[in-house]
Design brief:
Layout lengths: L7 E2 L11 E10 L5 E6 L2 E6 L5 E8 L3 E6 L7 E5 L2 E11 L7 E9 L2 H17 L14 H16 L4 H9 L4 H8 L8 H16 L10 E3 L5 E3 L7 E7 L4 H17 L4 E7 L4 H11 L4 E3 L8 H5 L4 E2 L1 E6 L4 E6 L4 H7 L2
Parallel strand pairs: 2-8, 12-13, 13-14
Antiparallel strand pairs: 1-15, 2-5, 3-4, 3-6, 6-7, 8-9, 10-11, 12-16, 16-17
Helix pairs in contact: 1-2, 3-5, 4-5
C-alpha cells in the first residue's frame, strides 16, 4: 500500500527567498473517471474540470516552487507534483494498489516538464518501489539495495546541481538517508540560501548523530499526569519505546491506535512504551490520553518543543520514536509508524 507521511514540525520547511513562479499543467487521464479533480498548492485550492476525452489543464502562480496535491476522485489517494516555472505534461492511469484489497487507484505515471518536476516524480516513484520491498528504510541493509542506490545517486546529482533549492533540502531530509549520507549531501548545499531550512536540516543531522543505533539513553525523570515522578530506570522491560507526541499533532494521534495494537501484542513479551508529550497545556494533554485510552506510561514537563528531552535530543518534529533495549542502548529511531518487523525479530 502506498504511504504518504505527515510530520508535525516546529518550522515550516517549504519557504525560501521570493522566487515567484508561473506554471501550466496539462494532463490526460487514460481511464474512466469523474468529471473533476481537486488541486491545492501554496495555500490555494481549485476544482478542475475534465473534458470528455480525459484531458484537463490548470495554471497559476505561486510564491515559490512548491508541491501541488491532486485528488482524482472520491476515495482516491493524494498525488503530488513539484510545481516550477514553465509547462508540465502529465499522464494519469489506473493502477492496481499493492495490498490486500488490490483495488484500482489513479496514479500519475509520467511527468514531462521542468527538470525539477521530473526529478521529483522519478525519485518519488523509486521511493514507493523501495517501500514495497523494505519494512524500515533506516535499516543499514537497505543501503545495499539497487533501488536505494539509484535514489541516492539521483538525489546526489540533484543536490549538486541545485544547491539553493528547497527541494534539495527536502530530498536530503525525507528519503531515509543516514546522518553520514545526509552530512555528505549537506556539505554540497549553498548555506547562504534558505537559512531557516538549512538550520533545520543541520539540527536533524545532529539529532541523528546523537541517537545513532548503539548510543545510550541516560536515565531521566519527568512528571506523570497525576504529578508523580517517573524515572526511566524504574522500568525492567527488555525493550522500551519512547514515543514523542502531542495532543495537537494529528499524525501522532493517527498513529496511536496502531501503537496500542503493538503494545497488546508485545507487552507480555517484554515491550514497554513511554509516551513523552510535547504539550504545553496540561488539560489538553490529559484529555488526549483519556480519549486515546492508552495503557502505557505518559509523562511531560509541559514545555512543548523546549521540553528537556526534546531539547537534549534535538527533536524538532513529531511523531518521533526511539526504541531501546534493557541496557538503554538505542536499537532504532524514526518518524511515524514503528516497524513491526523489528519487534517480531526481537520478540518472536
Amino acid at each position: 500500500m502506498k504511504k504518504y507521511f505527515l510530520i508535525c514540525l516546529i518550522a515550516v520547511i517549504t519557504t525560501s527567498l521570493p522566487a515567484q513562479i508561473n506554471f501550466t499543467v496539462t494532463g490526460k487521464i487514460i481511464a474512466d473517471t469523474t468529471n473533476e479533480i481537486f488541486v491545492s498548492y501554496d495555500g490555494q485550492k481549485s476544482i478542475v474540470q475534465i473534458l470528455k476525452n480525459g484531458s484537463f489543464s490548470f495554471s497559476g502562480k505561486a510564491k515559490n516552487p512548491c508541491i501541488a496535491t491532486i485528488v482524482f476522485g472520491k476515495d482516491e489517494e493524494e498525488q503530488q507534483l513539484w510545481l516550477d516555472s514553465g509547462r508540465m505534461e502529465i499522464t494519469v492511469e489506473k493502477v492496481v494498489e499493492q495490498g490486500i484489497s488490490s483495488k484500482q487507484l489513479f496514479e500519475i505515471t509520467s511527468v514531462k516538464g521542468p527538470e525539477t518536476s521530473e526529478s521529483y516524480f522519478k525519485i518519488n516513484k523509486l521511493r514507493r518501489e523501495l517501500y514495497t520491498k523494505v519494512d524500515y528504510i533506516g535499516d543499514p541493509a537497505v543501503r545495499n539495495d539497487s533501488v536505494y542506490k539509484r535514489i541516492f545517486s539521483m538525489v546526489d546529482h540533484f543536490v549538486t546541481k541545485y544547491p539553493c533549492s528547497n527541494l534539495s533540502i527536502d530530498f536530503i531530509r525525507l528519503f531515509g538517508l543516514n546522518f553520514k549520507e545526509k552530512e555528505m549531501l549537506f556539505n554540497k548545499l549553498d548555506t547562504s540560501c534558505n537559512t531557516n531550512n538549512i538550520e533545520f536540516l543541520s539540527t536533524e543531522i545532529e539529532r541523528e548523530k546523537i541517537l545513532a543505533p548503539g548510543n545510550m539513553i541516560n536515565d531521566f525523570s519527568m512528571a506523570k499526569p497525576d504529578g508523580a515522578v517517573f524515572h526511566l530506570n524504574q522500568l525492567q522491560s527488555n525493550y522500551v519505546l519512547l514515543e514523542f507526541w502531542s495532543s495537537w499533532c494529528a499524525p501522532c494521534r493517527t498513529m496511536r491506535p496502531g501503537l496500542s495494537g503493538l503494545y497488546k501484542k508485545y507487552h507480555e513479551k517484554g515491550l514497554e512504551i513511554v509516551g513523552i508529550s510535547l504539550d504545553e497545556n496540561k488539560v489538553d494533554w490529559i484529555k488526549a490520553i483519556e480519549k486515546d485510552n492508552v495503557p502505557w506510561v505518559e509523562i511531560s514537563d509541559l514545555k512543548g518543543f523546549k521540553s528537556t528531552l526534546a531539547f537534549k535530543y534535538k527533536i524538532n518534529a513529531i511523531p518521533y520514536w526511539i526504541l531501546i533495549d534493557k541496557n538503554r542502548k538505542i536499537i532504532q529511531t524514526g518518524f511515524w509508524t514503528v516497524p513491526e518487523q523489528t519487534l517480531q525479530k526481537l520478540m518472536p
